[in-house]
Design a protein that fits this description.
Rossmann fold, four-stranded parallel sheet, 13 strands, 408 residues, elongated, 12 helices, binds 6-O-phosphono-beta-D-fructofuranose, five-stranded mixed sheet, alpha/beta
Length: 408
């Protein structure tokens, strides 16, 4: 029997940490005596034409901190299996049969598919067809339900927070409103975390409906406190107040989102006559070196993926349930998007800091706890008729005791 062999591919939009996963898979495999091959350009390299490279500890030296992916990736083409949340597109059976042939001919015992929601939906279809796969969760959006963190997210929020730090100083110098548009198709995790970390005043996310009035109110509120500049963070996937996303439709693929920041900035300028500028962070969030957190997480995912193959846990995806890396069926991971909880502690903490989510004009009660008003407190100090009766009884008791004493 020949040496066991593991395959790996990176699919969908890239993000920092993909190379760290590849290195994790290759080095762990080498320790266990497995060979490794990497398929090129996502799933495309699996069939017609089959394109792959042999991966060794030697040719993956130094990639841990490199952004992008040495294997290439795509979120389009024959293997694009989703065009929206839970919108599954069935793969052509001929493609599946072709991939199965490749896997058999190359003697692949397990294929590590590194991807987000759409790419893992493909991996699930492979699994159902009998192709031996395991998954690793990747996306800067951090919106996969089965894991606390996808790798790439931490690097993206580092980039967005850094951008806000820079916008803060120029906004203050010019007394301007600065709008920063960040990624986040279905979930506002990037906007929320970067917004808190970068001291934003307004955060608009897909999970919380908002109005221009409330956003403008917040800016005026700050001005009344002498703060003559404001930072607004907008997730590209937040809906307009009247409904609808901003972007371009694409045939056979997810819509290309973008442009909400410019609309929000124009509206603020129109309504308040305050100088307002917009910056779109775009793919800067997906490029560059991974943070330490992402390197560690990605490496652990890679090692765990090899372990899943060794243990025969095919159809499973590595996931992070702090503090441990565990696994869940891939099906669980692709079934629903993990969104920000509008009533969760992160949003509450932000509200506590005075951050406006555009759903209320002011936020005096971030935790939603019913507090006693001053008039209610005053009412508490007033004696009730029950108190007075007790007092009366008490007086009576004393009088009776005094009478008894006098008579004795
Ligand atoms: O899904 C990750 C993501 O970064 C989204 O936030 C964004 O809408 C999309 O990828 C952009 O993809 P593309 O690289 O095709 O422009």
């Amino acid at each position: 029997m020949g040496k066991k062999r593991i395959g790996i591919l990176t699919s969908g939009g890239d993000c920092p940490g993909l190379n760290a996963v590849i290195r994790g898979v290759v080095t762990t495999s080498a320790q266990l005596g497995y060979d490794c091959v990497g398929f090129l350009k996502g799933y495309e390299g699996l069939y017609d034409p089959v394109r792959y490279v042999t991966l060794t500890e030697q040719n993956t030296v130094g990639i841990l901190n490199d952004g992008g992916t040495i294997l290439g990736s795509t979120n389009k083409g024959r293997f694009a299996a989703t065009v929206g949340v839970a919108d599954r597109v069935e793969l052509d059976p001929q493609l599946l049969a072709g991939v199965m042939t490749t896997i058999k001919q190359l003697g692949i015992d397990g294929l590590v598919c590194v991807g987000g929601d759409g790419s893992l939906a493909v991996a699930q279809q492979f699994h159902e067809y009998g192709i031996p796969v395991v998954g690793v969760p990747k996306t800067i959006d951090n919106d996969l339900s089965a894991t606390a963190f996808t790798f790439g997210f931490d690097s993206a929020i580092e980039c967005a927070t850094n951008a806000l730090d820079r916008l803060q100083t120029t906004a203050a110098s010019h007394e301007r409103v600065m709008v920063l548009e960040v990624m986040g198709r279905h979930a506002g995790w990037i906007a929320l975390h970067a917004g808190i970390g970068g001291g934003a005043d307004v955060i608009l996310i897909p999970e919380i409906g908002w109005t221009y009035e409330n956003v403008c109110h917040k800016i005026l509120d700050r001005e009344s406190q002498g703060k003559r500049h404001s930072l607004v963070v907008v997730a590209e996937g937040a809906e307009l107040p009247g409904g609808g996303l901003v972007g371009e439709e694409q045939a056979g693929a997810q819509a290309k989102l973008g442009g909400l920041g410019a609309i929000v900035a124009a509206e603020i300028e129109k309504r308040l006559h305050r100088e307002t500028r917009v910056s779109v962070l775009g793919h800067l969030q997906r490029g560059g070196a991974p943070t330490t957190f992402d390197r560690v997480l990605a490496t652990q995912y890679g090692a765990h993926a090899v372990r899943l193959i060794m243990e025969g846990k095919l159809g499973e995806m590595a996931c992070y349930h702090p503090p441990e890396i565990e696994s869940v069926p891939i099906l669980e991971a692709v079934n629903q998007v993990r969104q920000v909880n509008p009533d969760g502690s992160t949003v509450q903490a932000a509200r506590g800091l005075g951050v406006c989510f555009g759903d209320r004009s002011s936020d005096k009660n971030p935790f939603g706890i019913r507090q006693q008003s001053r008039s209610e407190e005053l009412l508490d100090d007033v004696e009730t008729s029950a108190d007075i009766e007790i007092d009366a009884d008490f007086t009576l008791d004393i009088a009776e005791a005094a009478t008894e004493e006098a008579l004795s």
